[in-house]
Write the structure tokens for this entry.
Amino acid sequence: MLLIPCPNCGPRDETEFHYGGQAHVPYPENPNELTDTEWSRYLFYRENPKGIFAERWVHSTGCRQWFNMLRDTVSYDIQAIYPMGTPRPDSSSRATPESGTASTAPDSTTTGTTGPSISTTSLSTTTAPEGATK
């Protein structure tokens, strides 16, 4: 569970907040002039970095104010909270974002240190019950 520091109310439980998507996405100047492809890219295409990410949040059960947050998407560590309309703070002194996919290493699970062994599993030895269709 995250403890989110609301800029107006102080630290509160994450259940009091709602995620609002990627921060700093400008609204198109002339939306009526956009093609369907350009409009869909504005609506649905967002960054998905592994590392520091700028997000919008609203304190929905408290002060009901929107704010921006820099959060590490790997560790959930909150780097900065800042008001809407202000530029993103410099995070170069902190961890740099990575791009990529989830690890496929055998030890990448959160519940153990090794992946499941499939060397002893065989589907060919399984037989269907009598009367079952194949």
Remarks:
- Confidence is low (pLDDT under 50) at residues 93-125.
- Helices lie at 36-44.
- Strands lie at 3-6, 10-13, 18-22, 52-58, 66-72, 78-83.
